[in-house]
Design a protein that fits this description.
The chain contains 2 helices and 7 strands, in the order ββββαβββα. The protein has one domain: Nucleoside Triphosphate Pyrophosphohydrolase. A hairpin with an 8-residue loop joins β5 (64-76) and β6. The chain has helices spanning 49-61, 126-135, and strands spanning 6-14, 20-25, 36-37, 40-42, 64-76, 85-97, 108-112. The structure holds 8-OXO-2'-deoxyguanosine-5'-triphosphate and magnesium ion. 8-OXO-2'-deoxyguanosine-5'-triphosphate is lined by residues 9, 11, 30-32, 37-42, 56, 122, 124-125. Belongs to the Nudix hydrolase family.
Length: 136
């Protein structure tokens, strides 16, 4: 029997009109430190995934999002009894206000979708990056 809880994560794939996505480098001292990531973070207990998406993008990259849609869900079972299962909600963000920047001091950059190297991202991003490349 498994009693593991599920930690949901809301992630924004911010895409501009020239097929670039806004990507940050994870701080070195964190899990997957030094790897690339789409902005986002943990869904809190009182939130829906899309509430967390709006909050995290404002907190991390100063973006007020206007148009977004759920694009992909990735789930992973916990590797041990005392860890949560994880569920990643990836949203495509297509319209926003403001100009995104690294509000927490993180390194950020626009990357052309076709140039993305999935090996530079956490392993749960591999499928969504493949799907993203098939869009363009
Ligand atoms: N933001 C983000 N997290 C990802 C991606 N891929 C992936 O596996 N993750 C994982 C890494 C983390 O274990 C988890 C989200 O964590 P986070 O570190 O961004 O969480 P957070 O913003 O709420 O930060 P904190 O409060 O835990 O410091 O999801 C991704 O593309 N973007
Ligand atoms: Mg985060």
């Amino acid at each position: 029997m498994s009693s593991n809880l599920t930690q949901s994560i809301a992630i924004g794939i911010v895409v501009n009109h020239v097929n670039e996505v806004f990507i940050a480098t994870r701080p070195v001292h964190t899990k997957y430190g030094g790897m690339l990531e789409f902005p986002g973070g943990k869904v809190e207990s009182n939130e829906l995934p899309e509430d967390a998406l709006k909050r995290e993008l404002l907190e991390e990259i100063g973006l007020e999002i206007l148009k977004y849609r759920l694009f992909h869900i990735e789930e992973k079972k916990a590797s041990s009894e005392n860890k949560p299962n994880v569920k990643l909600y990836f949203y495509l963000v297509e319209e926003w206000k403001n100009t995104p920047y690294g509000k927490e001091g993180q390194d950020v950059k626009w990357h052309i979708i076709s140039s993305l190297d999935p090996k530079k991202f956490p392993p749960l991003n591999i499928t969504v990056i493949e799907r993203l490349k098939n869009l363009t």
